[in-house]
Amino acid sequence: MNALQTIVPSGEIVVRNPATLQTIGSVPVCTETEISRAVTTARAAQQRWTATDIRERMQVIRRFQQILEQQKAGVAAAITREAGKPEAEALSTEVLVVLEATRFLVNSAPAFLRPERVPHASPAMKLKRGWLLREPWGVIGVISPWNYPFSVPAVETLTALIGGNAVVLKPSEFTPFSSLELQKLLREAGLDPGLLQIVTGDGSTGAALLQVDINKLIFTGSVATGKRVAQAAAARLLPVVLELGGKDPMIVLEDANVEVASSAAVWGAFMNAGQTCLSVERCYVHESIYQKFLDRCVEKTAKLRIGNGSDHATDVGPMIHERQLKIVREQVDDAITRGAQLLAGGKPMPQLGPNFFAPTILVGVDSSMRVMQEETFGPVLPVCSFKTEDEAVALANGTEFGLAASIWTNDRKRGENLARRIDAGTVMVNDVISCFGISEAPHGGVKASGIGRTHGRLGLEEMVWPKYVDSDRLPGMKKLWWYGYGAGFAQQMSGFVELQFAKKLTNRIKGGIKSAQSYLRRKPL
Ligand code: NAD
């Protein structure tokens, strides 16, 4: 159990508002028996759900979309209460992202789930028809983090549901109420209650979910937990998607618009108090504009208003808990000890509460420092300069992570070309983070940032397994390549290979004549 959470004697987790530390409520730590029961209930509901027409599933998603739009203010306030972020962010990066996802799913799922014809190029297979079907996995486990407590589990759940699955969701122990809100809205929209089961609890609950009879797991969280999840999944060959941490670089080329890029750096690093998997964690600026860029970042950071996210004047809210704040403080202290300098922030703000950390700008940083290698997940913007594009690419690719990156330039073609050289699941040219809100765009990383994708068509692909159905149009005919090989058969097969793949036309013709004799050979067994 996380030492930061209080478990009361009845075995419940007490959830607190990170800005005020006021108790919001408590949820149970589900037992293994309760988790197993949740899977059984989900499976029974899934068998009914998968038999329904796709139009019926879309109706539920559409109704959910309407209800969420109507209740957006209440949902945003609930997110802010337990995650701390400003309500404007709860609306833009959580509610709106989920509404976008519903639009994408309603528009795309019917065509995606329709059987897809698989054409055959081989002349030997021309008499067959092939179809690709997309079958639901059954019961999908979802384990989610606290930083996007509504949008992360909601997008994954809705995508799983439209694919014909049921979901057992284990929300973060710090933010379970956003998931319970999702469940409430989906039930109001008419979803069979069995189809979305929520099992509250801590890490041990997540680990227990990996041991019960789920068919696939979508995990979002840290690299350290992701590795534990991958090991447990490997032991039972459970398919997993891992959406893990990032150390996203921002590269500002010499022709970038400094005014725009500096605003992006400040927002990209401090939005959600830097607790965004796609946040700007490192900034590399061309030496020719470095000082001007820094000056603008410092001026803009000084204007940020730090406080309770439920106050509409707040730009930056609290961090989720003191342990996360301690990681940030240790990384900043480590950088300063090794020679970095602070241009803003650098310390906690206890006058606001124990979870507040001042937006921080660090310079004089280098790749040996923890703040340039480890995920910080806090309001810290380390900036350094580079001379050449090659140097910037090497710096950007020089960590174990590969979630996202951004490139800033007035020459879009140059930015797009440079994007090819960055090892990251997403590279944005002249924007940061907003790719998460593009519901058609796949979301996910390479290297330690994860395996697989959520969002978009690739996210839909993860929620179904492909079944190829092959149908032969001549059921009364034995295949020429079956037993009864005989002396000339190898010759004929060699001719068939030459007919299709020999470089010279004459050899192809000869191969065709040789292979034609196979039709004359004695009947296969
Ligand atoms: P975390 O890894 O501590 O916890 C994530 C979830 O896993 C929680 O629900 C937790 O209870 C559960 N868990 C803990 N131990 C477990 C175990 N042994 N087995 C199964 N489940 C277990 O992460 P966090 O602190 O909640 O979230 C922050 C991290 O999530 C950051 O690293 C961030 O980058 C990452 N993240 C990634 C994405 C993405 O899409 N790539 C999105 C959001 C957050």
Write the layout of secondary structure elements.
Blueprint: E1 6-8, E2 12-16, E3 23-28, H1 32-50, H2 54-70, H3 72-83, H4 87-113, E4 116-118, E5 128-136, E6 139-143, H5 151-162, E7 166-170, H6 176-188, E8 196-198, H7 203-209, E9 216-220, H8 223-235, E10 240-243, E11 249-252, H9 258-270, E12 282-286, H10 290-302, H11 322-337, E13 341-344, E14 360-363, H12 370-373, E15 380-386, H13 389-396, E16 404-408, H14 412-419, E17 426-429, E18 450-451, H15 456-462, E19 464-472, H16 486-501, H17 505-516
Parallel strand pairs: 6-7, 6-9, 7-8, 9-10, 11-12, 11-16, 12-15, 14-15, 16-17
Antiparallel strand pairs: 1-2, 2-3, 4-5, 5-19, 10-18, 13-14
Helix pairs in contact: 2-4, 3-4, 3-6, 4-5, 9-10, 16-17
Bound molecules: nicotinamide-adenine-dinucleotide (NAD).
What can you see in these coordinates?
The protein has three domains: 32-245 and 457-467, Aldehyde Dehydrogenase, Chain A, domain 1; 249-431, Aldehyde Dehydrogenase, Chain A, domain 2, CATH 3.40.309; 478-520, no CATH class. It has helices at residues 32-50, 54-70, 72-83, 87-113, 151-162, 176-188, 203-209, 223-235, 258-270, 290-302, 322-337, 370-373, 389-396, 412-419, 456-462, 486-501, 505-516, and strands at 6-8, 12-16, 23-28, 116-118, 128-136, 139-143, 166-170, 196-198, 216-220, 240-243, 249-252, 282-286, 341-344, 360-363, 380-386, 404-408, 426-429, 450-451, 464-472. With 525 residues, it is α/β, with parallel strands linked by helices. The chain is globular. The mean pLDDT is 96. The protein starts with 5 loop residues before the first strand and ends in a 9-residue tail after the last helix. The strands form four sheets. It has a seven-stranded mixed β-sheet with strand order 13-14-15-12-11-16-17, with helices on both faces. The chain has a six-stranded mixed β-sheet with strand order 8-7-6-9-10-18, with helices on both faces. Strands 1-2-3 form a three-stranded antiparallel β-sheet, with no helix packed on it. It is built from 17 helices and 19 strands. 41% of the residues lie in helices and 18% in strands. The structure holds nicotinamide-adenine-dinucleotide (NAD). Nicotinamide-adenine-dinucleotide (NAD) binds next to helix 7 and helix 8.
